[in-house]
């Protein structure tokens, strides 16, 4: 298949330049974390890395129907000496697809004529939102409730069948890749030194081979219980990419039909894999916070109006690990203007939470701890250009990690169910909740002795200093949209201000009250289970005001970086 490259030589050379494409190195070949492993775990790690590489294939197939053939095309062009193809392949591997987005919210389209679709490749590329809704209404009126339920399920790929649609479970659609991953997990379980970890690997292998959501549930339940294991392996399933499934509740007639048939639309899961080595010291620090989760649950707004994953009076099923990253692949490794530094899984739509399973927080050490001279210089330039010098004493990169710990824990707090009704705004609002909860609960954690008053100030100032972006994001960028929303809110509350020279000022005393107020509003929106209310809430605060424009201009001047790429030397060597 022949393709035409979309970017010019000038654009490709710019975007692949080290000043614009930032490298994020994971564990090195001679990392002590790897060298200190027992031989059985080293052997197991080889198989886990190999398993992770198959996730790239799955993710690319889910993301765009042309990703795989375009990748093969680039490889052939490179063999024939095509330098533009070589540069294009660097960007393709960084963003893991023909279409990505950079830190300035620009679409990076590598294939001429390619278009990003709200349903990615989960749905037929020629299926419009209007036709999608129409077909579903017809199918429901014809009594095809079960098939519609499968179409709107998180673990299916949807294809045309005449004038209807048909869903295929991931275990069918990706049978070859799932079986290859399962094979590697079974081999890893033969040499890994941890019994609990091996049990999880075998449960996960079984789930990959069977079209049985309950098999997934048992694997997720076991994974979420893992605490004292040398190795980390996760198959992540998150739903930020699919914007088509949730659109069904925007059609009032279709929404009514779905409610009548007891069908809850759940956006499709994008597949990713994380492989790592558990860092014991970092994990010990994380676990100090676990004892205070009931206290945090008790201090959540409107707590008597909903059930949350964390109880205020029971032993909580939540584990936490800090992980030195060997490999991030698939959805985990697609660097599109940013990359995940931590996760709280399984999400509320997962069946394991209904059979007594808990949740697990995993933190990515190498993603958050970038101390290269280049990274330190970028940080210094940003602070000097944008933050009131009087506040520099409170800026602490480690405080960003403390904030993230709160963010991930708050994902387990607040309403446990019902947020699917918010449709395409669900993820934005949930991420907004996690951020505001992390700040709103600071005083109770200070009173409990988790943080000092000085550390509280560091968290607040570091958060405020990092609030501004280089460009207004698209609505599909949930994490970035929520950043604009909450920053605008803080500006309106007088907690953050920007002077005419583009210098950020932070009123520390107003930060937590503003976060508490916004968190309450967020919970009210989630409890409403009202799409129109969620839409209004986002539109009210997703405002790119004068302050954002001033800061965006300064940030572009001091930081040229547009995107990044993950470097995995140890994983590459093992595979």
What does this structure look like?
The structure is a single chain. With 575 residues, the protein is α+β, with helices and mostly antiparallel strands. Helices cover 50% and strands 13% of the residues. The protein contains 25 helices and 13 strands. The protein has helices at 9-15, 32-35, 39-63, 67-79, 83-95, 129-141, 145-151, 170-173, 175-191, 195-209, 213-225, 252-260, 280-290, 293-298, 365-368, 373-386, 397-410, 426-440, 442-447, 453-465, 478-492, 508-528, 531-541, 546-558, 569-574, and strands at 21-25, 99-101, 107-109, 156-161, 164-169, 231-238, 270-279, 318-330, 342-345, 359-364, 496-498, 504-506, 563-567. The strands form five sheets. It has a five-stranded mixed sheet with strand order 6-7-8-10-9. A two-stranded parallel sheet has the order 1-13. Strands 2-3 form a two-stranded antiparallel ribbon. A hairpin with a 5-residue loop joins β2 (99-101) and β3 (107-109). α4 packs antiparallel against α5 (83-95) and α6 (129-141) packs parallel to α12. The relative contact order is 0.13. The mean pLDDT is 95.
